[in-house]
Each structure stands twice: as structure tokens, then as C-alpha cells.
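thought: user wants a sequence for this fold. calling inverse folding tool.
action: design(structure=
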């Protein structure tokens, strides 16, 4: 599996030149020549920093857009998509596929499992590739025990339950929605995220040391 990372405000990841996980804010962040080969854009959640460029990329590539149904319902909402925090209106996105969790996308020998991980948003998802133990975690968890903020319409107990699901996976490489990828002691890092989520009863964003990610 080949993974290219594009860094904007949030990370976007292109897998095997075919599947784009999150789209970022600016389509120009997804550089040529990889752009044209994208067949599917999977949005980990509805927030502006992950979705804004999706329609522009889909228009150029003809790619389908997939998002969980619970976040699909929030797509037009300036507040629920955190667009107001960026001084913008909600991006106009028309998904082709609504997810529930439990789906598997297959592209040749690539298999990507969709895991519904509500908490940061109601329809947040993570994408897991079991062959290499790769987890694309969106804003559900970050390296070093980080967790997504819950004060943008999220739910901390749902987040803790979601991280329990992730802690049960065999994860060798974490590809988060913000910050760097990590392949060192990832299981311990996920357990640390779980500890943080279980310890927070106030649903306030706290567990990111230098920045609160949307
Ligand atoms: Zn984000
Ligand atoms: Zn977010």
C-alpha cells in the first residue's frame, strides 16, 4: 500500500493513487499528477478543514464522495461543520455514498474497512487497512494520546466508546487528521487516547497540548 500525505490545515491521504481520505481546504494542496487518478474521496467527518476541497476535487477527477450519513445531515450547517471557525460558510457537497460503518471498499487488492467512530462528530469514521495495520483516524484520535475536541457538537462518552473499538485493532501505523503519522508504539498511544477520553466528563477540548483541532 502506498500512502501519500498532503498537508494543509488538516492532513489528506492518497492511497495507491486511488482513494483520497479527506480533502482538505484547498484543492491545490493535492498536487499533480496524483490528482487525476482519484476515484473515491472518503470524508472522515463533516468539518470544513477536511471537506472543503472535496467538491472541487470530485469535479476534476469524477471521483465519488463518501461520508457517514450522520455527518451528511450536517453538511449544510455553518456551525456543525465548524466552517464559522474558519470565517466561511459550509462547503457545498453532494455525496455519492452514505456510510453507516461496517462497509469495506475494495480497489484491486486494497481493502479499506469503515468504522463508525462518533464522538468528535456524530458521523465520524475511521478507515482501517488490516494488511499493513494502517488506521486513518480523522479527528477521533491523534498521536501521543490526543483526542478530538467534543465541543463542536460531539460527545465525549461516544468518543470513549469509539476509541475502545480502535484499541481492539492491530494498528501499526496511525495516519491522523492532524499532526504527523506515527508507527512507534501505536497501540500504547491509542490506549493513552482512551484513558484521556474516559477521564474527561466535561466534554471540553483539552487533550491536545499545543492546539485544539477542529
Ligand atoms: Zn480537523
Ligand atoms: Zn474535525
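)
observation: tool returned 214 residues.
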Amino acid at each position: 500500500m502506498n500512502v501519500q500525505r498532503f498537508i494543509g490545515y488538516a492532513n489528506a491521504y492518497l492511497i495507491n493513487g486511488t482513494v483520497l481520505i479527506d480533502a482538505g481546504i484547498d484543492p491545490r494542496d493535492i498536487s499533480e499528477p496524483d490528482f487525476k487518478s482519484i476515484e473515491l474521496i472518503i470524508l472522515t467527518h463533516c468539518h470544513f478543514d477536511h471537506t472543503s476541497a472535496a467538491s472541487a476535487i470530485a469535479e476534476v477527477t469524477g471521483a465519488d464522495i463518501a461520508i457517514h450519513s450522520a455527518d451528511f445531515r450536517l453538511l449544510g450547517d455553518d456551525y456543525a461543520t465548524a466552517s464559522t471557525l474558519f470565517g466561511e460558510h459550509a462547503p457545498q457537497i453532494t455525496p455519492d455514498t452514505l456510510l453507516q460503518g461496517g462497509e469495506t471498499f475494495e480497489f484491486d487488492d486494497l481493502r479499506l474497512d469503515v468504522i463508525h467512530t462518533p464522538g468528535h462528530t456524530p458521523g465520524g469514521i475511521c478507515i482501517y487497512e488490516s494488511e499493513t495495520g494502517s488506521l486513518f483516524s480523522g479527528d477521533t484520535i491523534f498521536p501521543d494520546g490526543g483526542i478530538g475536541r467534543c465541543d463542536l457538537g460531539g460527545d465525549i462518552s461516544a468518543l470513549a466508546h469509539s476509541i475502545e473499538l480502535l484499541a481492539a485493532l492491530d494498528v501499526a501505523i496511525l495516519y491522523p487528521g492532524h499532526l504527523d503519522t506515527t508507527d512507534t508504539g501505536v497501540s500504547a498511544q491509542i490506549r493513552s487516547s482512551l484513558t484521556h477520553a474516559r477521564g474527561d466528563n466535561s466534554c471540553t477540548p483539552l487533550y491536545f497540548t499545543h492546539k485544539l483541532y477542529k
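thought: summarizing for user.
answer: Here is the designed sequence. The domain at 3-199 is CATH 3.60.15.10 (Metallo-beta-lactamase; Chain A).
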